[in-house]
Backbone:
């Protein structure tokens, strides 16, 4: 263990402890919240490097941290720009040349402004006529804890449906035989998945190709959108704007429990443009989503770089020398 005798050593200790979070997590205990003891903290493996090596290691780690912070700031800025664009798109609309309509060309509805050329419609107007348009996942005995297995067909739960994206980091599975009995609850790419109950009521995302063929559980409502009648991304975006959000906030507390049911979703008044304009709106949103996706990929690569590089530096797999510290830092 190093003695904490200087600033460089303190920063080095911080990076070393950060690299050992897995070690500390494995030793954490507690029922209400996890905690570690002083003995556990003193047991964190800290390499006894000379002070110059510590400083050079910190320079490299700090350079990566700086790149991470800059990328996170770019993501936040791009998301703010996208939020502003979405507001403009759903209050002014997009002309065939790709330009927004002039300011002041909105009409006021009971739930907020929409472009003059648009109308309020129903999800049934854009649903797939060959499937049940709006469907809640299976209840009770149809899908219980005894049905889950270690691998098979994934079952999407409320945690998998985030605001505008799917999170597949934690999935449950049922056997293919069980999935066949629940076939009507299978998801297709382009479906709108909607959290129907509790604090997450209203959170929604489009089903991606990654979840095509997955099942939903009873906390999710599936809206079967028809890509020949709408741009699914346009419908998803509408659910994040004022007109639809106002109605969801109004309706979700009307029952004995906070939530939204299929009848309420059918009754929603959704802003609708003609199919060509929907696709123009979708094109604009996809461009910004692609920018955010590229930045997110860059962020993930930087985080992976730091984790791998710091492991190598702190275990001595890669030795830091005076000649290469600045080179490594400058290359981040």
Residues:
């Amino acid at each position: 263990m190093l003695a904490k005798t200087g600033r460089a050593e303190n920063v080095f200790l911080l990076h070393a402890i950060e690299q050992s979070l897995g070690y500390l997590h494995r030793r954490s205990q507690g029922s209400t919240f996890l905690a570690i003891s002083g003995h556990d903290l003193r047991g964190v493996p800290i390499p006894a490097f000379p002070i110059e090596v510590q400083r050079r290691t910190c320079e490299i780690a700090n350079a990566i941290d700086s790149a991470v912070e800059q990328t996170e700031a770019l993501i936040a800025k791009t998301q703010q720009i996208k939020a502003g664009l979405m507001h403009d798109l759903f209050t002014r609309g997009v002309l065939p040349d790709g330009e927004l309509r002039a300011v002041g060309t909105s009409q006021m509805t009971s739930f907020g402004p929409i472009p003059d050329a648009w109308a309020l419609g129903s999800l049934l107007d854009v649903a797939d006529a060959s499937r049940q348009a709006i469907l809640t996942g299976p209840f009770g005995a149809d899908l219980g804890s005894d049905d889950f297995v270690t691998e098979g067909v994934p079952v999407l739960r409320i945690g998998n449906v985030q605001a505008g994206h799917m999170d597949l980091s934690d999935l449950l599975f049922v056997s293919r035989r069980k999935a066949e009995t629940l076939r009507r609850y299978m998801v297709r790419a382009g479906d709108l998945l909607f959290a129907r109950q509790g604090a997450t009521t209203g959170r929604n995302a489009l089903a991606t190709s990654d979840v095509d063929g997955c099942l939903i559980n009873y906390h999710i409502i599936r809206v079967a959108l028809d890509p020949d009648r709408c741009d699914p991304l346009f419908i998803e975006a509408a659910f994040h704007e004022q007109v639809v959000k106002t109605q969801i906030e109004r309706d979700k507390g009307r029952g004995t429990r906070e939530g939204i049911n299929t009848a309420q979703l059918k009754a929603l008044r959704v802003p609708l443009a003609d199919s060509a304009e929907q696709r123009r709106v979708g094109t604009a949103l996809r461009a910004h989503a692609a920018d955010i996706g590229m930045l997110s990929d860059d962020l993930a690569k930087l985080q992976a770089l730091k984790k791998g590089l710091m492991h190598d530096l702190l275990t001595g797999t890669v030795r830091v020398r005076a000649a290469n510290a600045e080179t490594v830092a400058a290359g981040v």
